[in-house]
Amino acid sequence: MTLKNQLKTLSVLVIDDDDFIHDMLKHEFGQLGVHNVKTESTGKHAVERIQNGESFDLIIIDLIMPDMDGVEVLRHLSEYHFKGAVLLLSAQDQRILDTTATLAGAQHIKVLGAIPKPITIDVLTQKLQKLFTESQPNTLQVKDKISLEELKVAIANDEIVPFYQPQVAFTTKQVKSVEVLARWVHPERGTINPAAFISLAEESGMIDAITRSIFRQALPQSKELANILGRHLNISINLSTDSLCAIDLPEQIEDLANMHDIPCSSITLELTESRLIQNLISTLDVLLRLRLKGFGLSIDDFGTGYSSLEQLKKIPFTELKIDRQFICDATNNNTSKAIIESSVNLAKTLNMLVVAEGVETAADWDLAKSLQCDLAQGYLVSKPMPLDDLIIWLNDKQSW
C-alpha cells in the first residue's frame, strides 16, 4: 500500500490548548490527505476519549496544557496500553522534549519524534513515513515465538545467514565497505529479524555460535565478491562480546582470513559499546592482538553507553559508528547535532573513520556530510540484502 493510501486511513488526535495549532495541523494533514483529525484543548478530555474506547493511530501532544500536562497524558496512555504512536510537539527547550521522549519510550510508547513548534509539513511527512515504515510486519520480531530448540537447529543448519548493507563515502559516493548482518532465513516463517532471536541467543549462551557461523559463511562470500569485482571491499562483522573470552580468537579469525586469501586489514570487527567490557584483562588481550594482526576495530552505537570516552581511551579502535538515533534526530534536534559534531571531532583527532548509521533521508545525508562523517549507512543507500542481491546491486551501483 502506498503512503498516500495509508494516510487516507490514518486517525489522529491533536492535544493542544492553542486553537491556532489545531487549525495549522488540520490544514497540513489535509494537504497530505489525512482527514480523520480530532482535536482536544485539554489533556483530561483527551484521556477520557482513550478511556472510553476511542482508537487513534497517532496522538500529537503538547507538553504544557491546563489541568493535565503532556507528561501526565503519557502516563495515562501507558496505563491504557496505547498501541498507536505519539509525536511530541512543544515550545519547550529541546532537551526537555528529548527527556520526555525517553520517558515515553521507557513506558513502552512508540515515539515518532520530539519536535519544537511549529512543525513544517516536510517534517510531518517524514515522521508519518517513519510511522508506516516501522509498522510494516515484514519480519518476525517477537522473541517468545522462538524456542531455544528452534534456534539450535537453525544454527546447525546454517539458516542464520549473512546479509550485507553497503557503506558509501560521502565525498565520492563510492561503495567502500559492507556490514555483515545476521538474518534467519526460516524455511516456513521467511526472513526473521535479529531482534527476534539475538536476546534469546545471548541469554542461552548461543550468541558465540551464531557469531562463528556468520564468520564461517561471510569470509568465503567476501572472497567470491572480490573475485567478481576485481577488488576487496572492506567487510564489517559484528563480534559478540561473549567471543572475547576466547584467548585464541585472533588466531582463529586470522586463519579463516588466510584460508580465503582475505587481507586482515580488509576486515573490521564491530563491538557494541553497551556490552563491551566485562572482563577487562582478557578483553584487552584479545582486542590488542586483533589490532596487531591488522584487523580494524569499530565501536558501534557510539554514545548510547555509559563509558564511551573511557572505552575510547582503553581500546585502540579504528572506527566510530554514530548511532542511528542521533542521525535521524539531528536535522531537527540541536542536541543530537551537537553530539554528532563533537563525536566526529573526537574521532578525527584519534585518526578514526566515522560511519553515520541510519541515514534514511536526503536531509540525514546532507547533515552527516556537512559534519564530516566519512561513510553513510542506511536505507537511503540500501537495505541489507543477501549476497546474490548485493552482487546485482554493486554491478548497477559501483558509484552510488
Task: Explain this structure.
By secondary structure, the chain is α/β, with parallel strands linked by helices. It has 2 domains: 3-135, Rossmann fold; 143-396, Alpha-Beta Barrel (TIM Barrel), CATH 3.20.20.450. It has 16 helices and 14 strands. The strands form 2 sheets. The protein has an 8-stranded mixed beta barrel with strand order 6-7-9-10-11-12-13-14, surrounded by 6 helices. A 5-stranded parallel β-sheet has the order 2-1-3-4-5, with helices on both faces. Helix 3 (43-51) runs parallel beside helix 4 and helix 13 (324-330) crosses helix 14. The two termini are 27 Å apart. The model is unreliable at 136-144 (pLDDT under 50).
Number of strands: 14
Q: Using the 3D structure, state the CATH architecture of the largest domain.
A: Alpha-Beta Barrel
Task: Tell me the β content.
Answer: 15-25%
Unreliable stretches: 136-144
CATH fold description of the largest domain: TIM Barrel
Treating each run of at least 4 consecutive H or I residues as one helix, how many helices? 16
Query: How big is the Rg?
Result: 23 Å
The span between the termini is 27 Å
Q: Which whole number gives the mean pLDDT?
A: 88
- The helix/strand series, from N terminus to C terminus, equals HEHEHEHEHEHHEEEHHEHEHEHEHHEHEH
Task: Give the structure's gist in a few sentences.
With 400 residues, the protein is an alpha/beta fold. Helices cover 44% and strands 20% of the residues.
